[in-house]
Amino acid sequence: MIRLATDVGGTFTDLVGYDEKTGMVFTSKSLTTPQDQSIGVLDVIDRAQSASGLDPDKVRFFAHGGTTVINAITERKGVRTALVTTAGFRDVLEIGRGNRPDLYNLQFHSPEPFIPRKLRTEVRERVGADGRVFEPLNEDDVRQAARLFLEEGVEAVAVIFLHSYAYPDHEKQCAALLRDLLPDVTVCASYEISRQWREYERTNTVALNAYVQPIIQRYFANLEKALAAKGVYSAYYAMLSNGGVATFSQAVASPLTLVESGPSGGAAGAARIGAILGEKDVLYLDVGGTTAKCTLIRDGKPSLDAEYKLEWARTFPGYPVQVPVVDIVEIGSGGGSIAWIDAAGGLRVGPKSAGSVPGPACYGLGGTEPTLTDAKVAIGLLDPVAFAEGAMTLDVELARQAITRLAGPLGLSVDDAAQAMIDVAESNMINALKLVTVQRGHDPRDLALIVSGGAGPMLGARLGRELNAKSIIIPPHSGIFSAWGMLAAHPRADIRKTWFSPLVASSLGELAKLFADMEDEALSYFDLDAKDGIAFSYTVEMRYHGQEHSVSTRFTPLVQLADFAEAFHLAHETAYSFRQPDARIEVTNLHLQAEIAGNVIDCPLIDNDGRTVAKARKGERKVYFGNDGGWKLCAVYDRNGLPCGERLSGPLLVEEPTTTTLVHAGQALEITDRGIMVITEEVR
After folding, report:
1. Which has the closest alpha carbon to 322: 71, 100, 66, 541?
2. Where in the numbering of this chain does the Acetophenone carboxylase-like C-terminal domain appear (predicted)?
């Protein structure tokens, strides 16, 4: 049985296949096809067939992650969507939280809603926060709204009523009526996506879900048909933003759960590598062609962001969504990120990217802007001939010509300008890594730093040194690691529910009952009759009386009140640096995580016979280190030939088909018996 995964990124589409019987791993890489991502998926399968002998007939598990959802949202290419809501709440999407994050910007404008006001309709109904019905649903209002939607050519409708998390029956009634009246229109009710409080966040969630639902429905239908034509008949799974996988049909029902599909695959893989190395707490960084993404893994599981916001920035509030998303900090610094000079004469890198078309200047496909990849080619980090498994030859001269456009205004040589571009990008990444560690109460010195992505291993050793990380880990197949991680993910369901209560002894019993009901919901989601083989974990969000926001605390059904309260105090102190032991504690939300354990990809033991350092050495190459010594001669090794147990001192380069790893002077590289590279600082 072969398990196959494809990951569609902004620049490249990656493939990893794993033969469970032999332990053989198939890999492939091709340029992403933005006009139709499924074309790139088929291309990368074709490459794997011709290069590795992949037999599609033997594929029994297929996992897919991509950027279809996030692209449709960020590029505003979703379908024409309407909204039905409680009378008086038509403008919730526009009012939002009423805050202004860019405090001194008097020209600040709130985020533009994805649904225009003329398509936001009100119907008469009213439910209290405790679930009591004050006014029944007026079906005539719903029929009138349906007539408007037909006239306006609406393709999707979002239904959101006040306090429907406590009483969803009105939404069910409205959605059923709309589906009868509008059989060709997608209808999405908020209770199907979120049962949490906060009206603006819930409204935004269902609006965005409806906005992309027809698109993802068509995309998966076309992809499934194309895979079948290719001979890939298997169970089709989508990589979810929570670090798990779901069937295509489950993903279509809630497509917003795919918003960070690709990056969460890397997080699942990092958790798997950490488990193999016995590291439960790791910091993960993925530097791809367009962006750099980082996340923290605690106790063997990626952290989830309870308040995820699309397009959030320091000066922009973004669009909050109430779906489980791995807590990822993402910045526009990848291999294709374009370097430019701002109005003050400062050097910037990203967020604009050259993408796959035309790509960096060194690709020779028409790009002229200097990118991070061009800088790496110019200073010798990349072998121009062996790039992307030899699929293309990089043009060093074109890279240097592009960088010359920056070097002149900056008063630098081409070499120093290229190194300055890398320095700026690394500084951006350090800030992002500190956001998920230092600023959230975690010390990087206690963490191993796992680095992946086509561009990451070239930067990881220096980033780890700057953070004083315990070690820097370069996993196998690191250049296509998100796809690898998709084969390490399990089928998973995250069920969240709002429940208000003071934390007292009697509430512990109620919590246990509520979680038992949520377990039954998970069984229904997986279409199973028994809980055997399902791993459950329970989290309760709590706060001190009078606070606005909550912190998460692990719950066990037999926990004692004093122990549970102390766990909350500790979690609050970690998050906010203080505790209030005498304050009243309130429960706000429950979170059940259900995961089906099963076969996942492994790192097989290396056969060390015939492997020697001498045989693995490919030669030498000069690399420019700027102020750290200028041009230095570095030994170059083939990763697939290095024996385990050897210790090599930097500076050196390790090449593999999808990336290159740089080890600096003063650092040492070791290969574990499973082929994982570990970089540490040498003791002096």
Report:
1. 541
2. 510-670
For residue 536, pLDDT over 80 is answered with yes
Q: What span, in angstroms and rounded, lies between the C-alpha atoms of 326 and 595? A: 15
Rounded Cα distance, 595 and 525, in Å: 11
What distance separates the 2 farthest-apart alpha carbons in the chain? 81
- Do you find a cis peptide bond into 320, omega within 30 degrees of 0? no
Residue 231 has pLDDT above 90, yes or no: no
271 backbone φψ class: left, alpha, beta (φ>0; ψ -120 to 50)? alpha
Amino acid (1-letter code) at residue 445: R
Rg, the chain, Cα only: 26
The pLDDT tens digits of the residues spanning 122-136 come to: 999 999 999 999 999
Contacts of 350 (CB under 8 A, 6+ apart): 331, 332, 333, 334, 337, 338, 425, 428
In the numeric block, which tokens belong to residue 144?
Answer: 């009138």
- Given a contact cutoff of 8 angstroms between Cβ atoms, the answer to whether 539 and 555 are in contact is yes
pLDDT digits (tens, 9 = 90+) for 625-652: 988 889 999 999 999 999 998 899 989 9
Helix, strand, coil percentages (3-state) for the chain, rounded to 5, are 35, 30, 35
> Is 647 in a helix, a strand, or coil?
strand
Mean pLDDT of the chain: 90
> Do residues 258 and 82 touch, judged by C-beta distance below 8 A?
no
Q: How many CB atoms within 10 Å of residue 11?
A: 25
pLDDT at residue 389 in the model:
62
Whether this model's pTM surpasses 0.90: no
Place of tokens 């994805």: 114
| Nearest CA among 377, 395, 273, 287 for reference residue 675 | 273
What lies within 8 Å, CB to CB, of 506 at 6+ separation is none
